[in-house]
Amino acid sequence: MTYMAMGMHTEAGVPKTPTCKYFEDRNQAERQYHLFCASAATSEYETDTAVLMTMDGVTLERKTWHHEQPVEPEPEETPEDVPGAE
């Protein structure tokens, strides 16, 4: 049987082309799946997914990470000079 490990992500809401790797050995496919998981866990993309499946379409494992995108902080207002303070 042939197995596939796939990693995919979205950037600014747009799905990017997935990375697919094919294996005859399930252990090698699982290894690649977990490498995709490790990468996705610390990814900067807003959504990152790793999938392990067979070539006939049976999903064996799937995990998705939703990362909050950094929000630009509001500029802090500078306090006005207090009279009499030096």
Describe the structure.
With 86 residues, the protein is α+β, with helices and mostly antiparallel strands. It has one domain. The protein has 1 helix and 5 strands, in the order E-E-E-H-E-E. The chain has one helix at 26-41, and strands at 3-11, 14-15, 19-23, 47-54, 59-66. Strands 1, 2, 3, 4 and 5 form a 5-stranded antiparallel β-sheet that branches. The chain is elongated, with a radius of gyration of 22 Å. The model has no long low-confidence stretch (mean pLDDT 85).
SSE topology sketch:
Elements: E1 3-11, E2 14-15, E3 19-23, H1 26-41, E4 47-54, E5 59-66
Antiparallel strand pairs: 1-2, 1-3, 1-4, 4-5
Q: Compute the gyration radius: what is it?
A: 22 Å
- Provide the number of structural domains: 1
How would you describe the shape? elongated
The fraction of residues assigned to DSSP E strands is 35-45%
Provide the low-confidence segments as ranges: none
Give helix and strand order, one letter per element, not per position: EEEHEE
Helix content: 10-25%
The number of strands is: 5
